[in-house]
Specification:
Blueprint (H helix, E strand, L loop, with lengths): L6 E5 L3 H11 L3 E8 L2 E7 L7 E5 L9 H13 L5 E4 L3 H10 L3 E8 L5 E6 L5 E6 L4
Parallel strand pairs: 1-4, 5-8
Antiparallel strand pairs: 2-3, 3-4, 6-7, 7-8
Length: 138
């Protein structure tokens, strides 16, 4: 099979704050900004991966979700329990300094992991976990 990742989704509770973080701090390009039925989806991605899109979507954006489930999703997002994504970078320390200087919530300073990468971790403005890994030069 010839499968490749096309899109992944990250729940956000404030698209303007998320956009400022993902675009202005991380440097991702905005590829789309769509409003529909009172909701908003913003698509961002790295210039280095033009075929991969990250969709910043409202929590529980499905039209079939119950009000109780919408509330549960919003509560999980507020607690920072929903999963985010792992990015790779050529310079973990420089990226860390840039993101830290933006005021983002630091979870882990850069450190060498026993499994062979150097990484750091933050929460985005919605509370999603984001890790940034640097692989050693081979």
């Amino acid at each position: 099979m010839d499968l490749k990742l096309s899109q992944c989704f990250i729940a956000v509770d404030d698209h303007d704050k998320a956009l400022a973080f993902y675009r202005d701090v991380l440097g991702l390009e905005v590829r789309g900004d769509v409003a529909f039925e009172g909701m908003r989806w913003v698509t961002v991605g790295s210039r280095l991966q033009p075929d991969v899109q990250i969709v910043l979507e409202p929590p529980a954006a499905s039209p079939d979700i119950s009000p109780a489930d919408k509330l549960a999703m919003a509560e999980l997002l507020a607690k920072g329990i929903l999963r985010g994504v792992i990015f790779s970078t050529a310079d973990c320390d420089a990226l860390y300094e840039r993101v830290r200087a933006s005021g983002a919530d630091v979870l882990q300073e850069p450190m060498d992991q026993p499994y062979g990468v150097r990484d750091c971790a933050f929460r985005d403005p919605a509370g999603n976990l984001l890790r940034f890994t640097e692989r050693p030069n081979a």
